[in-house]
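Q: I'm writing a short methods note and want an example of a predicted protein-small molecule complex. Could you take the sequence and the SMILES for S-adenosylmethionine and return the bound structure as tokens? Please keep the output block clean; save any remarks for afterwards.
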Amino acid sequence: MNWGRYVEEFHGERAGITERVLRHSTDRGGDPYDWLLAAVPETGRVLDLACGSAPLWPTLGDRHYVGVDVSAAELTEARRAGAGPLVRATAFALPLAPGSVDAVVCSMGLMVLTPLTGVLAEIGRVLAPGGVLVATVPDRRPLRRADLAVVGGLLAALGSGLGYPGDRDLRRLPALLAQAGLRLDGDESRRYRYRLGSRDDADRLASSLYLPGLPPSRRRRARGYLRALSLAHATVPMPIRRMIAHRPT
Ligand SMILES: C[S@@+](CC[C@H](N)C(=O)[O-])C[C@H]1O[C@@H](n2cnc3c(N)ncnc32)[C@H](O)[C@@H]1O
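A: Understood, no commentary inside the block.
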């Protein structure tokens, strides 16, 4: 499976889908973007890596900001939202000078950026000494007991597990960060809740799932399952992992 091509086509057809889903996912009154942003230093130059539709820009845009993404469609959405400057480039060859940013933020990108060593090397290169990396990725935990039936039902409808090409690399993150000259400072996961209040909520979530190699009928089955859950205003758990690292001075 060529994940790179799959993800590019996926976002070409659904630009902004991640932002629409995460804005609808809450914990303690905030969404996953708020949580990521809470760990970002308040000043300095910032690179928004795999920026997508640039949901972080409204908070970070009043400082020296640059967004990078490989998807032209996502960058069009980001531009429409007023974000910039934006550069179409791959995370594996960043068009930035060594030590040119004080923070790299990456929301829900590292799990599809493989091999992770290549991306972390680029992050380590562009970060100035003392600079910070804050990244989020989907996780499998924490879950509550009641979540197991919801998740089990979704996986049964899909007839498949949900996974990402970077899952293995992300399990040995401290060692990979060290190879890139970075040190892990924080690594925790939180359970966000995606509220299924309507059929639209169900359709949005079903549309957002990366399902490489699965026939479209499986996505339709998952959508049907989520629509049924929406009649009961159910909640789908969205565990998110946040990692914080820095480049030592
Ligand atoms: C799940 S979306 C996250 C978007 C945005 N950061 C957010 O949280 O809403 C993953 C993003 O990674 C981008 N992407 C995938 N592979 C990439 C690569 N090699 N280089 C740069 N961006 C990439 C996709 O185009 C997509 O916008």
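A: Remarks, as requested: The chain has a mean pLDDT of 97. The CA atoms of residues 79 and 175 lie 36 Å apart.
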